[in-house]
Amino acid sequence: MQPPAATSADRPDQGSRPPIPAAERGATTIPDRVVARIAARAAREALTTQNTASPAHLGLAAPQSAVSVGKGAARLALYLDLPYPVDLVDASRELQHYVSERVAQLTGLRVTEVTLTIQHLIPSGRLDHQRVH
Fold it and tell me: FRET partner for 27 with CA separation of 20 to 30 A, picked from 8, 48, 51, 128?
């Protein structure tokens, strides 16, 4: 015959211990390459919301990213193409804000910096029949 299973009432010290604070229980570590993939995906999402067509349809290369993570914070570097014509200042600010917010939301990291490198400006179909005089 097996002895009955012990309950918390049988172990007085179990119920009297205070819960361990979250900071002392451990941490979740997200590798840099995973955060970089999330940032590149967020940049693609931002480009899709900025334009009427998908980035691939516009002939834009997939965004690339590099990330440095440490002490709960991330620094992001994005490399991407933009459609031409575009207001570079507004498009850049929107991309930086969107990617920063999305990465923070999905990873829990504080994003301290988002730098953009615009590799190419790709003419959109609107320029096909226009001439400069």
Answer: 8
